[in-house]
Amino acid sequence: MTKNFKMVAKTLFGMEELLAQELRQLGASAIEIGTRNVSFEGDTGFMYKANLCCRTAIKILKPITAFNIFTEEDLYKKIYEMPWENYMDVKGTLAVNATVFSDVFTHSQYIALKTKDAIVDRFRDREGERPDVDLDHPTLRINIHIDRNICTVSLDSSGESLHKRGYKVESTLAPINEVLAAGMLMLAGWQGQCDFLDPMCGGGTLLTEAAMIACNIPPNLNREEFGFETWPDFDVDLYEKIEEAALKKVRDFPHKIYGFDTDPAAIHKAKENIKSANLQDFIEVKQQDFFESEKQNEKPLYIVFNPPYDERISVKDVEEFYSAIGNTLKRGYPGTQAWMITSNMEALKFVGLRPSKKIKLFNGKLESKLVRYEMYEGSRKASKQ
Question: Which PROSITE patterns does this one have (predicted)?
């Protein structure tokens, strides 16, 4: 048995509790919630599992040391003294990224550069040659986090951000981040309990994430590679066991997931992405105007969607567009729980329905609200009785 060590999972604002819950269910210990991150403990197998199975994590970092620094020279010296040959070969490649919260050190790119210099200088002094930098597919990704005078050095076990699930073969205008999509669905309480509709589905991200949640499919199953796979101590047999155990937990889904979009190109892209995720048996997409649609049966229905952004709706149309959303939900979708995300707070006033819940999130850099509208059969009063 390998022993437990500390890790830090990074996430989006508003997803911290969800991520802590995911880690708890997977079996992590010593969980502590921070801002946009959750720290926890687990062994090497758990690190593999967290990367494979966490829907709301962007990165899983493995801190290897922390020290005080007061000048850039301190940083260089401390990094230079670390045994980097234990973590990579001189023939390998590296990439460094830094986040800085400090009055003394203010430029994160400069900190990343200084770190890289110290590592390559150590190799050159010891072995007469130096590793190269590769920002896209390095052998080792290193994360530097400076908080005031404390510098934490971590290895990035994920590699590319975990929102890059590997199933998106076609991209649309302003696509939603996969981690944000999964988090929205989890905040909405979606677990695969009934039919599901995304009425403005674009490239199909919400549909794909909804199907993976409903079937309990590990979200990063389609990824080509994780960062830890190029580490010297990567245990391929252990990883395969972890993957096999996760796949045994996949379940069947007896309901329907479907998506609409008015744009035929978006429908084509959604179909390609869904096929790439091997979920075409669970998801149906068709060209359809949501505003001319209605619910197909009496059964309960979840609606979750990300309406087009302001660059795709001219300003004069916003009022009309959002009031059409409210009218369509009222007229055509009784017995429905409808959730949508928007960064246009003014536009929400035109929906003409009172949200029963509002959750603050960020879609990229845009502050947004995830809102819930409950569409009761008949009147609200009748549904309570």
Answer: N6_MTASE, THUMP
Burial class (CB in 10 A: 0-12, 13-18, 19+), 195: middle
The residue to which tokens 């949640």 are assigned: 213
Task: Report the run of H or E that residue 283 belongs to, with start and end.
Answer: strand 283-287
Whether the predicted model's global pTM rises above the 0.85 cut: yes
**pLDDT value at 9 more than 60:** yes
- Distance CA(220)–CA(162), nearest Å, equals 7
**Mean per-residue pLDDT, 88-97:** 96
Give the Cα-Cα-Cα angle 282, 309, 198 (nearest 5 degrees).
20
What tokens appear for 174 in the block?
A: 């302003």
Strands 336-342 and 301-305: parallel
State phi, psi for 142 to the nearest 5 degrees. -115, 135
Q: Which amino acid is at 348?
A: L
Confidence of residue 370 (pLDDT cuts 50, 70, 90): very high
C-alpha distance across the termini of the chain, in Å: 56
DSSP code at position 221:
T
Confidence of residue 104 (pLDDT cuts 50, 70, 90): confident
Measured from the Cβ of residue 255, the count of other Cβ atoms closer than 10 Å reads 15
pLDDT for position 381: 40
Helix, strand, coil % over all residues of the chain, rounded to 5: 35, 25, 40
* Phi-psi label, residue 202: left if phi above 0, alpha if psi -120 to 50, beta otherwise: left
Where b means 16+ CB within 10 Å and e means fewer, 15-42 reads bbebbbebbeebebeeeeeeeebbbbbb
pLDDT at 377: 74
